Amino acid sequence: MTNQNTASAAKGKSSLNKLGGQKFIVILVIIGLFLLFSVMSPNFRKYTTLVSMLDYSYYIILMAIGVTFPLITGGVDLSIGTGLICYSLVGGYLISFHDFPVIAGILVTVLFGVVIGTINGTLVALMDIPPFLVTLCTCMITRGLGSIIVGGFGITWPNAIAPGGWFRKIFKLTIPTDGKPRLLPIGIIWVVLLVLVMSFVLNHTRIGRYTISIGSNKEAARLSGVNVKAYHVLAYTISGLFAGLAAVAYSAVFSTVQPGSGAGFELEAIGGAIIGGVSASGGVGSVTGSMLGVFVICLLKTGLPFIGLQANWQQIITGLVLIGAVLVDILKKKRG
Amino acid sequence: MKKKLLAVVLGASMVVAMPASAFAAEGEGEVKANGDYNFEIIVKSYQSSYWQAAVKGIDQAKEACGVTANSNGPNAESDIADQVNMLNDAINKKPDGIGLAACDQEAVLDSLQAAKDAGIPVVLFDSGVADAPEGSVYSTIATDNYGAGETAAENLYAALKDKIAAAEAPVRIGEVNQEATSESITSRGLGFIDKFAELATADGHTVAVTGNEYYVNNAKDKGDEASANIIIDVAVPAQTTVELCATEASNILNKEDTIGIFGSNQVAAEGILTANGNLGVLGSDPESTILAAGFDAGSTIKAAVADGTMFGAVTQSPLAMGIKTVEVLTQIANGEEVTDVPTEGYWYNAENMEDDSIAPNLYD
């Protein structure tokens, strides 16, 4: 029993080492894209562009941190995008229309994510329904639910200067000067801290070890006597928790949350995770890789318009980059 | 003395009538019922100030036309089934006409057929129903989106006219449209481009349209970028999110020669404001800031217009749609021929947004 246990853990470790290579490539891609866009567009080099890019990346990185866990189990979570909007709508609605203090709204937002994540996990792990189906259903449900709860209208969380607008400062400080105010995108500090914490959870705790072993060899994990199902549920709960945190980040960066939106956000997070080395078939992946992958997507999203590429070309290029990342994954597997 | 009193009464009634007449297309007050009519009117929901404004218009017009009208609506725009039930109940009451702002184009088709079979004329407002049974809908009253885009162009051009005339190098006007597919957005976008170009050309300037292929190719005159002194730069994001609209807007706002920008719906206008959150280049002084024109309302855009960050915006007029709906229903009941009625978009800025004629249209 111990043998199998260490064997699966060792397998997890060796696949983690393999990831180092892909991360290195992704960092090179990030540097390459950054240089390319900077050379081609003087405006891309501006500090404000960097701040905007970070502003718009927080919620995707947070979703990517969470979705890395179900992806590594060999599953997926498609509900995080519309879920994010649903949680944010409900939290904002309680603050704006029911006089909830902002902190309570934030807690409801995050808890809602945890609940939906746990429902996903329960259906996947205990009922054995394919994750794709389960989360596609909760994706649709959260999309409808958010609109119904708020009555179909856009919700605005308190703005930066309103009482209760303090939560926006978690992600960006604006320091007044004589001229234009100085912007400090401090959100990146918290996001990176969360990435480090969840990296630790994935690599050095039982939660992470079993998440990886579910993806690489579920049967071995089960035979080793571990309550696999509980850890399987937990992977989706983590995904839901981070979708909830992403909802808070989204509400803090953008002014209005529109019901019915959010579909497609999950693909950027999942795409980022895959670019960052999470295997599309499970068992392999890292949280730092997912963050780096999201940076690639965000760089493309910001840089391509700045060099004058029109919408359709932006999508084609983003798609090509994703295919490239999946190919790297497959080639690596074939080699080794 | 009698004359004086009459003058006071007339004056007072003119003041009272002004907000309504400010919105009516033509013939306000001329529509009078020839009989004892009762209409059923169903809005999309009762929650937002947008629909409350429509109901206010309905109430104003039923007084003026001398009819009775009962307004109803579901709790939320997403309560499609509730609205269909209300519509069916309305048909069963056998009114002289029904006004409907349909939540869902498909869901109301059977009921429209039922209304037609029962001989009850239907007037749609705010949104049309593309596949409505032939002969069931007598008139559709909705915003003239092309005209609303033109309204934005007229106001932005008027504010920038002197700056353009004094400019030594070509200047750039941005436009952010959330997509290039829906009728309402593309009409607004093209209305803005065509009107801005028309006004500028009349003043002896040359205009070129660049950016998104759809808008460039469908503009009346795309001009020549190399020789033009005004460049209209049209951006469409890869997806309809505020974030991508903001990125497109940042790109335009960062260009040295940009002097004005238009966002053709709430998402695009908020995208421009989001981009400005980090850039801080927008304002209401054409000499030192970029002027932004928005579309629709919502608390974010309203706040930006009120503090001058956004120069102004175009709002649709639910109040006018409500008034027109009752008038057209009355005309149908009178046996008059009616046609579709486009309603205007109205320009609002920090000065006039509190006016009685504008404020009811500015929903949160």
Q: Whole-number average pLDDT of chain B?
A: 88
CATH superfamily of the largest domain in chain B: Response regulator
How would you sum up the major sheet of chain B? Answer: 7 strands, mixed
- Oligomer status: heterodimer
**What count of domains describes the coordinates of chain A?**
1
Q: What's the structural blueprint in terms of helices and strands?
A:
The complex is a heterodimer of chains A (336) and B (364).
Chain A: H1 2-40, H2 47-72, H3 80-97, H4 102-126, H5 131-150, E1 155-156, E2 173-175, E3 182-184, H6 187-204, H7 206-223, H8 228-253, E4 256-257, H9 265-275, H10 287-306, H11 311-335
Antiparallel strand pairs in A: 1-4, 2-3
Helix pairs in contact in A: 1-7, 1-10, 2-6, 2-7, 2-8, 2-9, 2-10, 3-4, 3-5, 3-8, 4-5, 4-8, 6-7, 7-8, 9-10, 9-11, 10-11
Chain B: H1 2-23, E1 38-42, H2 49-65, E2 68-72, H3 80-92, E3 97-100, H4 109-117, E4 122-125, E5 137-143, H5 145-166, E6 171-176, H6 183-202, E7 207-211, H7 213-218, E8 230-235, H8 242-254, E9 258-263, H9 266-279, E10 291-295, H10 299-306, E11 312-315, H11 318-333, E12 341-343, E13 346-348
Parallel strand pairs in B: 1-2, 1-3, 3-4, 4-5, 5-12, 6-8, 6-9, 7-8, 9-10, 10-11
Antiparallel strand pairs in B: 11-13
